Amino acid sequence: MKSFDLLAPHTIAFDDPPKVTAWHSTVGPMEAEGPLGGCFDKTESDPYFGQSSWECAESTLFKNNIINLLDKECLKSSDIDFMTGGDLLNQCTASGFAARDLAIPHIGLYGACSTMAESLLVGSLLVSGGANRVIASACSHFCSAEKQYRYPLEYGSQRTPHSQWTVTGSGAVLLGTSGSPVITHATCGTVIDLGITDQNHMGAAMAPAFADTIKKHLAALNASPKDYSMIFSGDLGKFGKKIAIDLLKADGIDISQNFEDCGCLIYDPNRQDVHAGGSGCGCSASVLTGYILPAMRKGKMDRVLFIATGALLSPLTTQQGESIPSIAHAIEFRTP
Amino acid sequence: MELTKNQYAAFVKKRSSASPIVLDTARAFAVGGFICVVGQALKNFYLSQGMSDTLSSTAVSVTLIAAAAVLTAFHIFDYIAKFSGAGTLVPITGFANSVVSPAIEFKTEGFVTGLAVKMFIIAGPVIVYGMASAFVAGIIYFIFMR
Question: Considering the entire predicted model, what is its pTM?
Answer without folding.
Answer: 0.95
